Amino acid sequence: MDTSPNCAICNAPANPECPCESERLQIAVKQAEQRAMESRLAEIKDWVISHARQHILNGFERLTSARKQAHSTYLSSLPFYSVYMQYSGHPPIHPTHLAQLQAQISEAHAELKRGIDADWRASVLRYPEVLDYFYSLVELRLPNDRSPRVIEPPFAAAGYADRGYDHSRIGKEGKKKKRREREPSAAPIERGRGNREEHMYTVVGRTRGPPPVPTPPIQPGGYPHPPGFYRYQ
Ligand SMILES: [Zn+2]
């Protein structure tokens, strides 16, 4: 006798295997990942961006302030520059000297601007590796496989048949329903409605051999989830 459980979704015999359960599992994983990771990833991203930006800006400021310093040192070294400044650009000097000085100043300003543009470009082009660096500082840690919290999650210690899947553990409250309401045939199917994703609980992967513990039910099309939906009585 084949004791393999029927498909939890469509109730077809275990052989040949239908794709329902693995499809539902993929959906469930995706949704769980979203619930668990979305806000954390957003937080990490903000952190990485703000530190990368600050690092780039700091580097750019250092480059340009050195450049501006060299620029003003150079200007001060030009003949007639101090008298030029003293007379606000109209110094009583020979027009030839004045024209030469103005050309030197103008060229120095253009050179400074080119340098600043180059500094900025070089800084901004470093973003990919700077982002890599700050992302590399973020630590992701998986718990030890032997951790009691991993081996024995604080619910369904004897399998789901004993007390059902405690909805309140994941922030859903509810009261008990009869098992028959769990049958797919009794489930209202309203396709085409907007899926309330957080209400879609789906099965976990099926195993061959010993019947698996009852798993969270499927909600085709995302119909409203009765509280305590898969609580056995
Ligand atoms: Zn199936």
Describe this structure in words.
Helices cover 48% and strands 0% of the residues. The chain is mainly alpha-helical. The chain folds into two domains: 45-136; 156-233, no CATH class. Helix 1 runs antiparallel to helix 3 and helix 1 (20-77) packs across helix 4. Zinc ion is lined by residues 7, 9-10, 12, 18, 20.
Keywords summarizing the entry:
233 residues, mainly alpha, 48% helix, binds zinc ion
Low-confidence stretches: 171-233
| Number of domain units | 2
How would you sum up the major sheet?
A: none
As a percent range, the share of strand residues is under 5%
- Give the CA-CA distance, first to last residue: 28 Å
How many β-strands, per DSSP?
Answer: 0
- Structural class category: mainly alpha
Shape designation: rod-shaped
**SSE run:** HHHHHH
Region (Disordered): 162-233
Biased composition (Pro residues): 209-227
Biased composition (Basic and acidic residues): 163-173, 190-200
How are the SSEs ordered, and which strands pair?
Blueprint: H1 20-77, H2 81-86, H3 95-124, H4 127-136, H5 148-151, H6 160-163
This protein binds zinc ion.
Concise structural overview:
The protein has 233 residues and is mostly helical. It has six helices and no strands.
